Structures are given as structure tokens and as C-alpha cells.
Amino acid sequence: MRRASLRLRLFGLILSPLILMAILLGYWRYNVAQQTANELFDRGLLSAALAISRDVLVSSGDAILPSTRDLIRDASGGEVFYHATGPGGIYVTGYAYPPVRTGPAEASTYTPHYFEAQYRGEAVRVLQITERVTVETLTGDATVTVWQRLAGREAFAALLAKRAAALICGLLSTLALVVWFGVNLGLRPLTDLQQAIAVRSPDDLSRIKRAVPKETKGIVSTLNRLFGQVEKSINAHQTFISDAAHQLRNPAAAVQSMAEAVKDAPSPADREERIAELVAAARSSARVADQLLSLDRLKQPAISAAFDDIDLHKLVQDTCADMAPQVLSRGIGFELITPDHSVLIRGHAVFLSEALKNLIDNAQKHGGSNLSKITILLSIQGKSACITVADDGTGLTPDQSTAAFGRFSQIEPSEGSGLGLAIVLSVAERHGGTLSIDPVKRGASLTLSLPLSA
Predict the structure, then answer these.
(1) What integer pLDDT is reported at residue 311 of this predicted model?
(2) Residue 399 DSSP label
(3) Maximum Cα–Cα distance for the chain, whole Å?
(4) In what order do the strands lie in the sheet with 373-381?
(5) How many angstroms separate the CA atoms of 83 and 314, rounded?
(6) Structure pTM?
(7) Which residues in the chain show pLDDT less than 70?
(8) Is-contact 226 205, C-beta < 8 A?
(9) Which CATH architecture group holds 6-163?
(10) 214-297: which CATH topology?
(11) Sign of the alpha-carbon torsion through 403, 409, 411, 416
């Protein structure tokens, strides 16, 4: 799934809370506008009611002053309607039928009462004021009722809300522009870094030394570490390919020369002898190629994913059974010592078996003419399973480890390729173990240590 760009994600993350706050602010401002409109119009109704009440009292109910009529006519929010009654409920002036309160009566008679009602099919806001008055010789309660359509209030509140919304939208648009340019400016170092990496050649794996913000130093450090690992891996593969080509050249040349010698053999007996030598040379060349492939596969990260639970006791027995005929055919004693129980580890059975075969093969090829016995010992030492391959041939000391374990290197010239112990060391490292040369008085002893299963 394609992910949004970092610029858009940052823009959205910053702007989303601002939009939410703008919505909440607009809702709050609309409620405030309604409350403000109600307060203003209620005060207008109160002013009109007091003015009408005053005129009724001054004129004894005969007339309303022109200034009061102008107030009623010009009141904001629309036309104001009124109805006045004198003592005893006698109609004085105004509209004949005022809106009627449908709810319960107020406890105090002489307190201004606001309520909402229906007048001629329209919703109205009503104010009713009752005062104790004396008109000539008549004393009683005079009531003034004024009312106004609610539509005017709602239109005024909507106008206030629209103005507030326009202001909020303007501020939000300004903030969006500021955030957009701010995000672009903040991400410019990443863009510059990308451009600097893009112009590099494929062969340039040097460290990135460009100054970057603190937040991106971790990315640059990771890239530098990755570049270093890639460069190291490429150099190792180039060295390996160069060494492999050098090592394969001699066996290939030997096979070619022997093949030509077979063609030029003077007699059938010589031809048979040279064919046998050719087969041996071809096998040696194939063995070197197989070892090179094994060494290369051990460097691949996918090997660890193929690890299984293995009974090392059975694996050692099976491998020694395969190698025994070859060793015994050369007149060399072969002894296997193992515990009488399973030894569980986690690893790759094929490579572990190959490692043990290389240790036995190394003992045969480098044991010298005095070699008479090879002993394989499987033991448990602490949290490790140890496979020790010892012989009584030419000695090998711990201080010779670098030369013995190096690729294509040998302590003394022999028929080997110089890859056997290098493969064993790689197998040990991939399994989290070690390969060491044991100090012994006679012959050579090498121990492959592998961690036991938890």
C-alpha cells in the first residue's frame, strides 16, 4: 500500500487538531451569539414595556408618546407588538389579543416575566410586566405585554455566527499556509540529503558527512553503518572471488593437462593410469568447487532461518559411519566416543555434518606419515556441546590458529585446498560457537563448541 508523503503526513497531523479546535470554537461562538442576541432583544423588550407602562400611567391610558412609538417601530430584531390593561383587567391600548402563557404562573406577580409562545402561527418572545397603579380614583394592577418574533433573533444570531465563522476560516487558512511553508522549510535538510545521496556514484560507499538536524542524525548514522557493512561485504566477496579463481585455476589446468596426456598415451596401460589420475584430479577440483560454494552459502543471512532442533549425538554417529570406510581403508584407526544420551542443539544439520567431515578429512590430509589413529569425542562442557577430533600425527599448536583457519592457507604444503578449517570456523560462527586448537603433547586436537538448546 502506498503511504502518503512525509510532508502531507506532517501537514495533516499539525492541521487536524487546529481544524477540530476551529469546529469547537465555531460551535461555542454560535451558542454565544444566540445568548447575546437573546440578551439584547430581551433588554429591548424590557425598554419598550417600561416606556409603554410609563405612557399609560402618565396619560391615564389615553395615549402613547411618539418617542415610544418610534422605539417600538425601530427596535432591532423586527416589529414589537404590545397590549396594555389597566386596573381590573380593563383593556387600555395595543393589540386586542396578546399571546397567552401556557406554563405555570410565576410566584412573584410584580417581577418581569419572559416566556415563549405562538402568535398567529409564529414563534414569539413575550415579556409581561405587572405594576400596582392608581388611575384617578381607581387603584389596581396594570399589565403591559410586549412580544417580538423569534425569527429576527435567530437571523441576528446567525449573522454574528457567520461573521465569527468567516474570521475563523480566515485565521485557519492563514495557519494552513504558514504550516505548509513551515513543514517544507523544516524538511529541506532531508531533501538536500536525498539529493546529495542521489548524485553519488554506485561505487561511492563513503560515510555521509553532511551536517543534518539532530532528529535525522540517527538515520544518517544507520545509513553510514549500512554503507560500511555493504562495502565490507563487497570487499569480502571480491576477495573471495579472486581467491577462488586463483585456487580453481590450478586444478582446472591439471585436469586439462591430464586429459591431453590421456590422448597422447603411448600404450593402453599408460592410458588407464593417466585416466585414473585424471579422475582423481577431477574429483579434487570438484571438491574445491563444493567447498567454495559451501563457504559462500555460510555467509548468506537466510541460513539462520533454516535452523532446526538437532540431536548432535545421532548426527555425529551418522557422519562418522559415512567417513569410517574411507579412514579405515587407509589403515588408520578410527574411534568414536559419545555419551549414552541425546545432545540437543539448534542448527543446520547439513553444514554441521560437513564441518565434522572437514575436521576428519583435515586430520587425514595433514596428519603426515606417522598418523595411525583418529579419535572423535562428543562431550558436554557447561552449556556447550563439544566435538573434538584428535589424531597422533603431525602436531598443531594453538599459536598456529591464524594460519590454520585462514582461507587457502596451510601450515605445510599438502594435498588439501586450505578451505576445510575455514569452513568449520564459518559453521561455528553461524551457530554461535567456536573452533579452537587444543594444546596437546602429541598430534593435533581441534574442538568445535556449539551452544546447547535452551
Answers:
(1) 92
(2) G
(3) 166
(4) 333-337, 373-381, 384-391, 444-451, 434-437
(5) 112
(6) 0.47
(7) 1-4, 56-78, 103-107, 134-138, 236-255, 258, 263, 278, 280-306, 407-419, 454
(8) no
(9) 2-Layer Sandwich (3.30)
(10) Helix Hairpins (1.10.287)
(11) positive
